[in-house]
Amino acid sequence: MSEELVCSKPEEARNAETENSVEIVLTLTSEDPPNNHDPNVNQQTEREAETVCTEIRPNHSRVSKELFQTEEEDGDDDSGTHYLNSDERPCTHLQRAERPGKLPDTFQTDHLLYYERFKAYQDYMLGDCKASEVKAFTAEYLEKIVEPCDWQAIWHTDVFDVLVEVVDVDCKELKAKVELVLPMECETRGCDLTEESMKSLLEATLHKVPLLELSVVYDESGDFDQTALALDHLRFFYKHIWRKWDEEDEDDDFDYFVRCVEPRLRLYYDILEDRVPAGLVAEYHSTLALCSEKFQEFSSLRSGLDSDSESEQDNVSMVEGLRLYEQLEALKRKLRIIENPLLRYVLGYKVNSGQQSCRAKGPRPAGGRVVHLVSASATVQQLQSLITDKLMPHYSSEEFEVQFHSDPVLAVNACYEGDVVIVCPGLYSITSSISIVDSIEVEGYGLPDEVVIEKRNKGDAFVESTGANVKLLNLKFIQRDAIEGILCVRQGKLEMENCVMQCETTGVIVRSAAQLCMNMCDLYGSKGAGVEIYPGSVCSLVGNGIHHCKEGILIKDFADELDAMPKITMVNNMIHNNQGYGVILVKPGDATMEDLPAEPNAADENEKEFGDTRVQSEADIDDDDVPAIVVEEECPAIKHGHSGPPDFTEGNDAIKQELVATSAKKHVLQKSRMKALGAMQADENLLSQEMFISIHGNQFKHNGKGSFGTFLY
């Protein structure tokens, strides 16, 4: 037979929340019924039951902590609070944030890692809620975690910090009812507050203050660790994740965490770890501020409209509202592009293509030109050699003067159009980007291995060129811990000769409408492509070594028919030991070009008359539909001579054929779409533009996937 004894919680714990109360049922089994009339048996049974209940019953704090641990995880929780789950550690495991002044210290919670916040928001605070359900889910999370009363906090505002005690928490309103701790402990900024004035302020607010403005006072017991973490997650969410317009998003039916929280959280930590260019960060914050301003204007205008009114003023307001709405949507799209880790770099180049470009200074107002000498220190003999070899033969006229610098970045920033920067031998470590906006020349005095410029900052590109005619000579560039390319030609023309580039991420990038002439250079170590060539650019590569990169040369052809194919010259380059292809063409797949009318393969069916260097079309396409593609063939001496073994040079023809075919197909697409739009007269400059192709004498060795390949997207 059995008997059930029910052990309730002690009297002092009965006022706790119902969901946190614990009731233990103890079953006693024996052969004979217990003697209920024997006081010894009854007392012994009650003592045993009380002992078991005391050992098993958790307190409120422990129940809250176990919310962060599921049975499946068995204690192996990575939510960022797993170290709070062990019963063997009754003390706090959060660090103390020391505060200057007389106010007590608080918990340090600003050190949390990405995955800790990720898990807290995904598993405990937001889950799979919609944007319209965020407040309800957040309130439920706080009700389970935050201690309801009897804890002290610092009430922080822009004007003062004061010590208060929390007596109640309203999770739905995100507010706490507080009482002033006496004697008052307060720190003010620019004002004087007395105890009476602070009490009056609390009475005016009904003693309710926002939870976002409370920081839990440090306590070694560990009872308030979860409360401190929960308030920190709440503050972080409303400061860095939540947007005022999220509730009105048309995509409210989708998971808010996946759609908004995760990309914004990832962007925050990428910025924190210097993994986003400084210019893009500045653009993001300015766009976010402008979007908030436009949303405020739109909301104010919308609230003042009367839907039943037909007055002229309301009609004007409606038009203004539509204009603000379109601006707001455009800004939100721009924010989504930057927040998305894939779109940020795939499409962001058009958004951010000129974000770091400064306005060119032009010629020096007072006239004349300056030679900027860069040297940390130099011996008399070195200075004499420099004067004899370089300054006197080339810069001895009266229009030149000499200025001295210790940093190449400062020298470039001091340049006007026509200036010259001469970098003396040495190792120069820089942390900021070298931005060249005027037509200048930067030359190393010596061999490239003797004139080394090293960059260690993650956030920005190494060298950016927007000048109309820029030259770089005899320099070695080394990247350390970089996330941006080593050199980017955004616009204008850049000539490089006898330079060495030790890359960390991508190599040289040639943007649309930019021009690069790269001769006798050595480029290696890129985790992306050694050279990226964008549509509409002009790129000449002669006698270079491109090796030990993920891809050798990447040629981009976007689906937009207005993006013209680049004009490419590749002669006598050594492209070897790359992980992927020596040269790869990225172009849209057949699905993207499905509305293109059928046409023969320009690489296989066009007859190339290299004496005239024009591609003649088959009868399937009108002569007017064929683009003027200039294909420069190597001379017979090179073709059949000593340019290299056939196995190493066979990729040249494959590259030419593919580029010719792609350009021809794109030209037909341009004309077909213009005809479909009813354009009677197309832009002759657009439809008659030539694609110049001069590819010969290049050697391809030991590339992982071969000399040439295509990637369809």
Helix-and-strand structural type: alpha/beta
Q: Could you give a short account of the major beta sheet? A: 11 strands, parallel
Q: Note poorly predicted spans.
A: 1-89, 348-357, 591-643, 677-690
Shape: globular
User: What percent of the residues sit in helical stretches (DSSP H or I)?
Assistant: 25-40%
List how many beta strands DSSP finds: 39
Straight-line distance between termini: 75 Å
Strand order of the largest sheet: 12-11-13-16-19-22-25-28-31-37-36
Question: Helical region count?
Answer: 18
- Gyration radius, to the nearest Å? 35 Å
Which percent range describes the beta-strand content?
15-25%
Q: On the 0-100 scale, what is the average pLDDT?
A: 76
